Amino acid sequence: MSKLFKSLESAPPGERLDTGALLDAVRWNDAGLIPAIAQQHDSGEVLMMAWMNRQALEETLASGRVCYFSRSRAKLWRKGETSGQVQSLVNARLDCDGDALLLGVDQRGPACHTGRRSCFYIALDAQDGEIDAAPLVDPATLYRNGDKR
C-alpha cells in the first residue's frame, strides 16, 4: 500500500486530494491495469468487471463515458462503441488500498457481450452451476464486425 493510501485511513470526510496524485499512488498491476467493477448506480446491480489503464480511467473521468482497456485487443475499449450498449459514468471510487475501482454507471441495455444484463449470470453452489438469466438481446445483433466488446 502506498503512503498516500495509508495516510487516508484516518482522513476525515470532506478531505479533498488531487486526482493526479491519487492516480500516481494507485497500485497498477505489472501490465499497468487495475480491475474495475461496474455497478448500476441506482439499483446496485453488479454488471461486469473489466480492466482500466490510467489513460482509460482519465478518459472516463473527463468524458463521463466509460472506457476500459481491452487486454485481448491491447487497446482502449469504449463501452458500447460496437454494440451501442453505452455505460455513462455516475461516480467512480477507489478502494482503500488503491488497487480496485468501483464504477457507478448508467448502463443502456445489456452489459454483457452475451446479451445479458449482467456478466454474472452463472450461479454457483457446492454441486452445480446454474444459468440464471436469459439474454435480453441476441448477441449476434449487438456487434458489428464480430467484435464482442
UniProtKB/TrEMBL annotation:
It comes from Modicisalibacter zincidurans. Its cofactor is Mg(2+); Zn(2+). It catalyses: 1-(5-phospho-beta-D-ribosyl)-5'-AMP + H2O = 1-(5-phospho-beta-D-ribosyl)-5-[(5-phospho-beta-D-ribosylamino)methylideneamino]imidazole-4-carboxamide. Binds 1 Mg(2+) ion per subunit. Binds 1 zinc ion per subunit. Catalyzes the hydrolysis of the adenine ring of phosphoribosyl-AMP. Signal peptide: none annotated. This is Phosphoribosyl-AMP cyclohydrolase. InterPro entries: PRA-CH, PRib_AMP_CycHydrolase_dom, PRib_AMP_CycHydrolase_sf. Keywords: Amino-acid biosynthesis, Cytoplasm, Histidine biosynthesis, Hydrolase, Magnesium, Metal-binding, Zinc. PANTHER family: HISTIDINE BIOSYNTHESIS BIFUNCTIONAL PROTEIN, HISTIDINE BIOSYNTHESIS BIFUNCTIONAL PROTEIN HIS7. Belongs to the PRA-CH family. Its main location: cytoplasm. Its EC number is 3.5.4.19.
